[in-house]
Amino acid sequence: MKAVSFLALLAVLLSGCEAESPAEVMLQDAAALKRGKQLYTGSCGGYCHKTSVGSEAPNLMDCAWLHGGADQEVFNTISNGVMGTRMIGFAGKLPEGDQDIWKLVAYLRSQRHC
């Protein structure tokens, strides 16, 4: 009986353990954040996601995220784009592939003003 209880407790404790997202790790990497900023400036903020008033695309420096604010959700939105909008998917379009997308996610997280 005690072995079953211990195993049940262990299963519950381990079920809450999720691996860190790549963006979480990159938040501690100055070079990754710099690359994320360069990508954002050149591909996102310079065109659609301007922080000035009148921009048709959402401000990505706040915490009001339309398609989910968790790292994986942001990654998916950047990768796949948003159907019915001008937001294209960037999967396969950046020089360092998924790593560049994760660097974008890390940069966005580092700049949020909540």
Strands, helices and their partners?
Blueprint: H1 2-15, H2 22-26, H3 30-45, H4 71-80, H5 98-111
Write a structural description:
The chain is mainly α and 114 residues long. It has a single domain (20-111), classed as Cytochrome Bc1 Complex, Chain D, domain 2 (Orthogonal Bundle), CATH 1.10.760.10. Helices cover 52% and strands 0% of the residues. It has 5 helices and no strands. It has helices spanning 2-15, 22-26, 30-45, 71-80, 98-111. Residues 4-15 have low confidence and may be disordered.
What proportion of the residues form beta strands (DSSP E)? Answer: under 5%
Distance between the termini: 48 Å
CATH superfamily membership, which one?
Answer: Cytochrome c-like domain
Q: Might you state the CATH topology name?
A: Cytochrome Bc1 Complex, Chain D, domain 2
The percent of residues in helical segments reads 40-55%
Please, how many domains? Answer: 1
The helix count comes to 5
Quick one: biggest sheet?
Answer: none
Class by alpha and beta content? mainly alpha
Give the total of beta strands. 0
- In one word, what is the shape? globular
Give a brief outline of the structure.
With 114 residues, the chain is mostly helical. It contains 5 helices and no strands. The protein starts with a helix and ends with a helix.
Highlighted features:
0% strand; globular; mainly alpha; Cytochrome Bc1 Complex, Chain D, domain 2; 5 helices; 114 residues
